[in-house]
Amino acid sequence: MAVNSEDGRELRSFKFKDEDQTQEVRAVERRILLETLANELPPETVRFSSKLGKIQSSENGETLLQLTDGTTLLAKIVIGCDGIRSPIAKWMGFSEPKYAGYSAFRGLGVYPDGQPFAANVNYIYGRGLRAGYVPVSPTKVYWFICYNSPSSPGPKITDPALLRKQAKELVNNWPEELIRLIDLSPDETISKTPLVDRWLWPGLSPPASASKVVLVGDAWHPMTPNLGQGACCALEDSVILTKKLANAIKSGPAAIEGALRAYGEERWPRVFPLTVRANLVGSLLQWDNQLVCSIRNNIVIPKLVRLGPVLEHTNFECEPLKA
Ligand SMILES: Cc1cc2nc3c(=O)[nH]c(=O)nc-3n(C[C@H](O)[C@H](O)[C@H](O)COP(=O)(O)OP(=O)(O)OC[C@H]3O[C@@H](n4cnc5c(N)ncnc54)[C@H](O)[C@@H]3O)c2cc1C
């Protein structure tokens, strides 16, 4: 990993394995991850482009799902993994996620003849502004820019030319390779996302499941991306939930509600502290005070921070799923 300041000065560079033998980074393109997971399933298992419009309980304990194309489905078990604006979470009584005061531009630089970077995660820290990039394949490099916009994230923008322009304006005069990455990103890969989270306070927040409906991933625990753990936690949730459900289904339908509750109880101590920690880390990284940023760049990052303990949260052993 290499951490640089906005003027291109290297603040610190290290290998994960030198800091902590258990650490490594793997950058995966979202599309590839989703295709890989979907391809493991029998054909026709996933019905794409099925947007949930309405959900309601039915009298026999099943759940009625109404899709926006008019189709209705009667489900014995519903696993809501429908992201930060989850209609299922809303139906279960969860509040809207809260805006953290900063937003992110993201994109994927494409180099058809091969990208020029080493297998490094690169961060660049400015004031109230930070960026990063990491190769995700021999021809593609993911990049992001996080910037403060405290009062509101501003209007939703879909015009790729405007998104690209705004992203470039933020990092004008920053290292040239970042600007080039933005230029090399196809329109459809560039997006802007307001960063949000929801803290699952015990006693105040509803549990992860109600009857035979359960939440997974961002639908349950949206977190800011400052620890790079949102998707990782969604995958962990899935493995733990699968194990609980597989055992319950073997024991009969009566065990299912208990299994969903047990999943929520097991996962809460993992996801709640991570959500809080990600938020606090974000507040530190988005500092814009000149003196504080100077101390961060000249003392804290180069001399004080030991990365092993800081990255300890990435260690989680799901144990393999058995057939
Ligand atoms: C800037 C940024 C950087 C990030 N970096 C990282 C990182 O480095 N590492 C990491 O682990 N995580 C990272 N994350 C977080 C990660 O993207 C999310 O945690 C992850 O995508 C959550 O997965 P999910 O399946 O729960 O939700 P999503 O990926 O949001 O998927 C939800 C799905 O539900 C669908 N859906 C929504 N509404 C409906 C509906 N009404 N009916 C049917 N379907 C619906 C959506 O179309 C989508 O396909 C980052 C996030 C951001 C914003």
From TrEMBL:
<dbReference type="InterPro" id="IPR036188">
    <property type="entry name" value="FAD/NAD-bd_sf"/>
</dbReference>
<feature type="domain" description="FAD-binding">
    <location>
        <begin position="34"/>
        <end position="271"/>
    </location>
</feature>
<protein>
    <recommendedName>
        <fullName>FAD-binding domain-containing protein</fullName>
    </recommendedName>
</protein>
<dbReference type="GO" id="GO:0004497">
    <property type="term" value="F:monooxygenase activity"/>
</dbReference>
<dbReference type="GO" id="GO:0071949">
    <property type="term" value="F:FAD binding"/>
</dbReference>
<keyword id="KW-0560">Oxidoreductase</keyword>
<dbReference type="InterPro" id="IPR044560">
    <property type="entry name" value="MOase"/>
</dbReference>
<keyword id="KW-0503">Monooxygenase</keyword>
<comment type="similarity">
    <text>Belongs to the 3-hydroxybenzoate 6-hydroxylase family.</text>
</comment>
<dbReference type="InterPro" id="IPR002938">
    <property type="entry name" value="FAD-bd"/>
</dbReference>
<dbReference type="Pfam" id="PF01494">
    <property type="entry name" value="FAD_binding_3"/>
</dbReference>
